[in-house]
Design a protein that fits this description.
alpha+beta; Cerebellin_Synaptic_Org; Jelly Rolls; signal; 2 helices; 2 domains; 200 residues; 7-stranded mixed beta sheet
Length: 200
């Protein structure tokens, strides 16, 4: 169907005067009848390239943090640890393109592009540093942080960033040294999400 449409389009424009969209000047089509088959083949290749590009650029994930141990309501804490520690969001809701690794907690960019990431974190602790950091490779690019005092023991926060990545770059959520966060075995309150906006 596409093939016939392309041939009709080329035939209709053959030898006609058209206005350039860039300059506004009239230009003559220089396509001859003998060049028609090669032009059709060129257009078919471009259509196939566009199809491949669309299919190969589907990247999106959403993952949830689950506690290592839990109370009767399903809540459990992560940390504090003596060193910065990757948080592995091991309950996957979506992983189109399989770029998120549930074993390491790392997203690895499958193509060069501009990506969007969001993290949401929750805590239910007193007198502790709470929050998480987002890392691109070994560089911290965002931090959610608060010192939780005695009077306010429950907090939730989110942050979003846009990152330009090259193929193979990794993005992780890290619990900084000495920090604590809380997750739930049944509720999706701590999440790590990302998707490709466009390729570059």
């Amino acid at each position: 169907m596409y093939f016939l449409w392309l041939i009709m389009l080329i035939c209709l424009s053959f030898g006609q005067t058209r206005v350039s969209s860039h300059t506004g000047e009239e230009v003559q089509s220089s396509l001859t009848l003998s060049e028609l088959p090669s032009e059709v083949e060129k257009l078919k290749r471009e259509v196939e390239d566009l199809k491949q590009s669309c299919h190969s650029a589907r990247v999106a994930f959403s993952a949830v943090l689950r506690p290592p141990s839990q109370d009767n309501d399903g809540y459990g804490h992560h940390g504090p640890f003596n060193a910065d520690t990757n948080l592995v969001h091991n309950h996957v809701l979506t992983n189109v393109g399989d770029a998120y690794n549930t074993a390491s907690g790392a997203f690895t960019a499958p193509v060069n592009g501009v990506y969007s990431f969001t993290i949401t974190t929750y805590s239910w602790v007193a007198e502790a540093n709470i929050g998480v950091a987002l890392y691109k490779n070994s560089e911290q690019v965002a931090l959610i942080w608060e010192y939780q005092d005695k009077g306010d023991n429950e907090d939730i926060a989110s942050i979003g960033v846009i990152l330009q990545l090259v193929k193979g770059d990794t993005v992780t959520v890290v619990l900084p040294s000495g920090f604590k966060v809380t997750s739930n075995a049944y509720k999706n309150i701590c999440t790590f999400n990302g998707f490709l906006i466009f390729k570059v």
